[in-house]
Amino acid sequence: MSTKGETPHSNLRMHVEAEARDLSGENFTRFMNELYNRIFSMVNSSNPDEKLGGIYAIDELIDVQLGENATKISRFANYLRDIFQPNIDTATMIAAAQALGHLVRAGGALTADVVEFEVKRGLEWLEAERLEARRFAAVLILHQLAENAPTVFNVHVPSFITAIWPALRDPKIAIRERACDALRSCLCVVEKRETRYRVQWYYKLFEETQRGLGKGGSVERIHGSLLAIGELLRHTGEFMLARYKEVAETVLRFRDHRERLIRRSVTSILPRIAAFAPERFALSYLQICMQHLLGVLKSSSERGGGFMALGELAGCVGHGTGVSGITPHLPVSPRAPFAPCTSQ
Hints:
Layout: H1 8-22, H2 25-43, H3 48-61, H4 69-81, H5 90-106, H6 111-127, H7 132-148, H8 150-153, H9 157-163, H10 165-168, H11 173-191, H12 198-212, H13 219-235, H14 244-252, H15 260-276, H16 278-284, H17 286-296, H18 303-317
Helix pairs in contact: 1-2, 1-3, 2-3, 3-5, 4-5, 5-6, 5-7, 6-7, 7-11, 11-13, 12-13, 13-15, 14-15, 15-16, 15-18, 17-18
């Protein structure tokens, strides 16, 4: 039985570490080969629970120092590589991608080879004819590689910026949101490195968002572009300053869109617009945004997001009574926008 604070995964790690101390070199090698075979069998099982168990075992053993780390990393990379197949369920893909991120973070000298292979494969899947499972796997993998192996991923930034758009505009919202995660991690890589191409990459992303927000755009294109705008506001610094008015007014144009998803996206992005340039926002857009958010609070289906946005907005521009505070824009009766009284 596990003691408090232990999990089956940590028990596996402790067991392997104990065997490493107690067994002779030849016996330990035999033990590890049997363990590798067992994990291989699990990750290739048709039983989803066994497959997940194999992934969790890999994730737990990555940091265990066994004296033959290169062999272990190589084996695990190959095991995880074969998991991303079209018939694999979402939970298994997510777990495998997270294990892959852990692997490249700890992989040492082998990291570059693993990342090179996986990035190229992920980009090929994004650029190929749409296959939902592979596109989903690609954005999961690229997110983890950018986050956990930024130095190696950095050389692939130009290709990524071109290839990510089909996923950001995918018909399935889960793929669009995971593509946004990957874009965020990519922009963090760019943000931390001095490169003369940075502005060029930012400009290319911005131009694509504007195309997606043009007249007649589909819900998927609009949503993906709003997601990207949110990340550009977070991670591109001065680049967005000259485009601030254009961004703010473009986003606000969609605040009354017929699709609830788009309205919610606008609500969530307003605090980011405020945080980017609080004084400018307070002067030019605070009043219209407060009117919009107070209207959102009247809708039971959108009220939660409205409250969150209102709280974040107060954190950006202040909640006092000054020109830049939100208090002057609140209704006299605090119950007015939330739960109007009715006569009994």
